Amino acid sequence: MGDALQRTIASIDGKTVTLRQLMSAMGEQGLLLLCILLCLPFLIPVSIPGVSTVFGAAIILISLAIMLNRMPWLPAKISERHIETEKLIPALRKGVDIIARLDRFVRPRLSAITGTALANRLNGAAILYGGILLMFPLGLIPFSNTLPGVAILLLAIGMLQRDGVTVIAGYAFLAATTAYFTALAYLAYSAGQGLSGFFV
Predict the structure, then answer these.
(1) Where are the domains of the chain?
(2) Is the entire prediction scored with pTM above 0.90?
(3) Residues near 3 by Cβ (< 8 Å), separated by ≥ 6?
(4) Which of 119, 133, 158, 161 keeps 20 to 30 A from 108, CA to CA?
(5) Are 148 and 174 in contact (CB under 8 A)?
(6) In this predicted model, what pLDDT tens digit does every residue of 62-109 receive, in sequence order?
């Protein structure tokens, strides 16, 4: 898994790269591996303009393809969007380093969570939900991209390696992300209610 990701990163050339080029570099490695690649920039606290929207939308469409067991369709607005490589490549490399450490703990177990068509559809739906959370316009708020990125990463790795424990960890991060976003929404609502008192 790590070697395939390293080869993909090494193939990136130029000042910008498109999602279509990344998909082409992945070759026949599979949709789950592509999801893993798209999560890597969110594992470290770095802001890359436009990445969460493009990669989040791509993850949503890829997760739909996983649920329907077919190749994904990506509109040109997403697949041809140019992303600057100056920050993207270092983020991808650091993400691969994290995966290399995580890979030592991943192994086939709890096959009921990954071994059936129904389980894979449910896990694909969880990845889709993570992609939606990733697209929320909260890039300046700490962990708003990292939490859903980690959730998607764990779900994809767990499905790819048939590791039910890792998939469960992905669901836990999805729950934590939902709770975090709910708390942010509540705080924003409370702040708005407080400010409205000054104009009454």
Answers:
(1) 2-136+162-199
(2) no
(3) none
(4) 133
(5) yes
(6) 898 888 877 777 788 877 888 888 878 888 888 888 888 888 888 999
